[in-house]
């Protein structure tokens, strides 16, 4: 059993039955620079060549934390199908060409935010920032050229757990670990 194929099937099923706006929403967990775990929701762009691709500002907290320790976690929760996927893996930057493509695929508002904001830093006047955002959006001043501080990460999974929830709490847990270049599967107790 290949966990990546199972993940893809589950992802497609959740997307079909839920109609979720962001079926790729997942919690990325990093080790904070202060040693505390740090989780936030990000959007999965795709699974490519066996890695889970996410994007964002590389100078934001998540980028700084990945640069300091590239061992990360991804967690998906799909309520309609009652499934959870937990992934532990190694994050490495995607190529500049791939980052360019992912940035160009973003909608205009997302590109404007990426260009005009420094994610996670304090804002002195929120209303002024919103007004500036509207102005830049209306002017169409931001094209598809990627800012230098924006990129992506390919997360190569080392461990994957796919779990189907049960009302009885007798959850079906399938744990996979990459060993010697192949996936080793084990059932886990709920």
From TrEMBL:
Residues 150-190 form the Pyridoxine 5'-phosphate oxidase dimerisation C-terminal domain. Its cofactor is FMN. Keywords: Flavoprotein, FMN, Oxidoreductase. Its EC number is 1.4.3.5. It is an enzyme of class 1 (oxidoreductase). InterPro entries: Pyridox_Oxase (IPR000659), Pyridox_Oxase_N (IPR011576), Pyridoxamine_oxidase_dimer_C (IPR019576), Split_barrel_FMN-bd (IPR012349). Residues 22-136 form the Pyridoxamine 5'-phosphate oxidase N-terminal domain. GO terms for molecular function: pyridoxamine phosphate oxidase activity. Pfam families: PNP_phzG_C, PNPOx_N. Belongs to the pyridoxamine 5'-phosphate oxidase family. This is Pyridoxal 5'-phosphate synthase. It comes from Niabella pedocola.
